[in-house]
Design goal:
Chains A, B: One of its GO terms (biological process) is monoatomic ion transmembrane transport. Two copies of one chain form a homodimer. With 471 residues, the first copy, chain A, is mainly alpha-helical. The first copy, chain A, has two domains: 159 residues; 217 residues, Methane Monooxygenase Hydroxylase, Chain G, domain 1 (Up-down Bundle). The first copy, chain A, contains 18 helices and no strands. In chain A, helix 2 runs antiparallel to helix 8. The longest helix of chain A is centred in the first third of the chain and has 48 residues. Chain A is extended and about 95 Å long. Chains A and B meet through helix 1, helix 2, helix 4, helix 6 and helix 7 of A and helix 1, helix 2, helix 3, helix 5 and helix 7 of B.
């Protein structure tokens, strides 16, 4: 009986295993289909996030096809021969996403090929003077010396930043030309062909890169800076509006990704540096002149990052509710909210005037308002302490939050300063139209918001910033 | 008279201008000499800062000379011919500073050349089926399709991180092989020669890179993490020792570059990421296995950076003297100093055990001490507030500094946690020798420092961490 049962069991098991294997086998195409679908979805998202990626891919395809015409068209092939491949290679290696990067690589490659080619021909000539046995030794020595020296030069920070690729091509071309000369009779022709094919490839890249939907690194950097200020403003607005003014239930409703967008600002240094480097290679385009002060963008970027750092420190305190001695709680919250909202408004104004490339005068009133709120806050703390005995532990949280917020406001001032500098360096226009607009608005505000009637909810009118303590 | 004076003046001026021009002309060689001297000094410093730079340069020179032997040695040249230049090119492009980077580039290049070569031969075969007129059109279409697709694939973050260079070589080789096939009869030989010369060049790089003073990216990353912890400890030590314990005159004497070393920690993210990427390509070496958890290093790096961020926020408050209500000033300063010093000690222990790759148990008592100080601090603030009325403004500064310092201690805990994780992931040894050493020390401490006799200067014995308020 038992053995029979066991037999049944094993046969069942076997059947089960078989069925499973069959399912897996059938599932294979399904799985791979699912994977392909997932991949396609990812690719769609990549393209949707930045459609310029699709254009760029097509542009590379076009440039490469253009250059490979040298192979197909007999007269062209006759004059270049196998060297045509240098053109293909140049296109693949030089064509980068932005015009600036392509220009930087192309010019580096062209110039380095020219210099190293000339030097290689010279080295070959010098080596050939020392006879048949001496020549390879001399050549090897030259190549060794040049490679060692140039590789070491790549460690110089200034060279690494702008001419690293050029140094690489310099080593490469020198070695190729001088060593090939040992075998080929027409070394001058070899060097000349290499240079002209590199120039053809580089030109194809540049023409396609600039003529078809150009991507300017400078424009990217300009927009990137404006966007980062917006991100800081989003946090400060959320902080003032949700954390300080409303209940904790609402706090959980806030749009997290918008609120914590500042986090992506923290690690942008290297990206900004390479964008500024590429931008400095770009010719005049759109609203950007040839000598646009791109270095100033790095300064602005640094102060934005510093502000984001302070905001991160502040963010660490938002897990608990705002906690202050009851007698100052309402007024303190109100002033902090005021500071935060005004700093956010100033950042938004700075961002939009930066985007439009006009002098950021419209941000000034908001900056002044936030500074006035800081003063009011200090005098509030002084008066309050004179009047009441207070719980130390209760004040620690509030004091820290307030103090960090004041730091954030200071950073906002710094950002405004560096943007002011940029606007004078780059000769931004003063916004006369904008001015009239703002003046009209101010008249409306002073009429509708007299100094006396300030409710905690209406904490943004200029009148309520009088530093006289209210508590 | 006037005209005479003027004549004298102009002739004097002219003589002056001539003299100046002469001086400048004479100064030219002097100036250029000075510039050359300056350059030489910079180069010396670069070499002194990291002597591996000099070794690396020499290694590149050696590898390049080795590979160019193909040109000089007749039997070798007979079998490769002009294709020998691919070997030269591979060495120049693939040889990177660390073994991991060289391996990553070499493997990428080798594999991509193999795959693209095979695919290129296939494409050429397919195109040749469509007749003499159809062939270039088909080839052009294939090249366009492949270049566009592969360029787009380079935007996938996972591919960009590890296989970007491989994709580039894939596009390049496919275009070269398939298009060259239109002109050359022996396309298989072309592809084969290209692959074998690339393999020769890559092998030369790898052999020289590993055999002569190898630079391991993994070891660099490991040391870099330990060094960064030291930098944080330096700040915390300076903060506890100089800022909190001594007068302001001494504060100016502190070693600024050591004290503010934490600033260099802030922008290390991209550097750490590339080091971890390269390290993951490296074979087993020294104390690092093949599957060493390099990703955990990124986690540790992130928590170190977060701690540095908090320290930067704290640093902003050190411009003014520590400012607290007089009745708690001494005790508060003392506890803050305690926290700071203990956190610094914990970081130093973590750093040294990380460097030696042993389980960081010796840091635990210091971490506990700093946590105990945090508790004592909180209870001090509570008791003080119950007893005395106090000046709000006076407490804001102290409260903020204290609160930020508590955050720093929390971050230290996080660093310790992530290093603990690493030590279990990477199977660090427990330090049995180290253990005995620590036990001996503890016995000495409990004997020499009884709980009652604690002076403010001697604020580091474990006994004084009792949270009972002293004020």
């Amino acid at each position: 009986m038992e053995s029979l049962e066991m037999g049944v069991a094993t046969s069942q098991e076997r059947a089960g295993a078989l069925a499973r294997a069959w399912q897996q086998l059938m599932g294979l195409p399904k799985n791979s289909m699912a994977k392909v679908a997932e991949l396609a979805k990812k690719a769609m998202n990549l393209g949707k996030d930045d459609p310029r990626r699709i254009t760029h891919s097509l542009k590379v395809g076009v440039a490469l096809s253009l250059v490979s015409l040298i192979y197909y068209y007999q007269p062209l092939y006759n004059s270049f021969g196998v060297s045509a491949m240098w053109a293909v290679m140049t296109v693949v290696v030089v064509f980068e996403f932005s015009v600036g990067a392509t220009l930087s690589k192309g010019l580096n490659r062209g110039l380095a090929t020219f210099l190293a080619g000339a030097l290689g021909v010279g080295a070959h000539h010098l080596a050939s003077l020392s006879g048949k046995t001496g020549e390879p030794i001399m050549l090897g020595f030259f190549v060794f010396l040049q490679a060692t020296g140039s590789t070491f030069m790549r460690f110089f920070p200034q060279i690494k930043a702008k001419y690293d690729y050029g140094m690489l091509i310099f080593i490469l071309t020198f070695a190729l030309v001088s060593v090939s000369g040992f075998r080929q009779e027409e070394i001058l022709e070899f060097a000349h062909k290499r240079l002209s094919t590199v120039v053809i490839g580089g030109s194809a890249c540049l023409i396609v890169s600039i003529a078809v939907c150009p991507v300017w690194a400078g424009e990217d950097l300009h927009r990137h800076i404006a966007l980062n200020m917006e991100k800081l403003a989003n946090f400060l607005e959320g902080f003032g509006d949700k954390y300080l003014r409303e209940s904790e239930d609402d706090a959980s409703n806030r749009d997290e990704s918008l609120f914590r967008g500042y986090k992506s600002v923290l690690g942008t240094k290297s990206n900004e540096e390479s964008l500024a480097n590429f931008a400095s290679w770009e010719p005049r385009h759109g609203r950007f002149g040839f000598r646009h002060p791109w270095k100033q963008y790095l300064k602005i970027g640094a102060s934005i990052r510093q502000c984001a750092n302070r905001i991160e420190a502040l963010d660490g305190y938002l897990t608990t509710k705002f906690h202050a001695p009851p007698q100052v709680q309402i007024r303190l919250k109100e002033l902090c909210a005021e500071m935060s909202m005004e700093a956010a408004r100033a950042l938004r104004q700075l961002s939009s005037s930066h985007k439009a490339m006009i002098v950021p005068s419209s941000a000034t009133p908001h900056l002044e308002n936030s500074r006035a709120a800081v003063k009011a806050l200090k005098s509030l703390l002084e008066t309050a302490s004179r009047k009441d005995a207070t719980d130390l532990l209760a004040i620690v949280h509030a004091a820290t939050v307030t103090s960090l917020l004041i730091e954030v406001v200071d950073c906002t001032d710094k950002i405004a300063e560096s943007i002011d500098e940029l606007s004078s360096l780059a000769h931004f226009k003063t916004a006369e139209k904008e001015k009239k607009h703002v003046e009209c608005k101010e008249v409306v505000l002073t009429v509708s918001a007299p100094e006396a009637t300030v409710s905690p909810e209406n904490g943004t009118s200029p009148g309520r910033l009088d530093p006289a303590p209210v508590v």
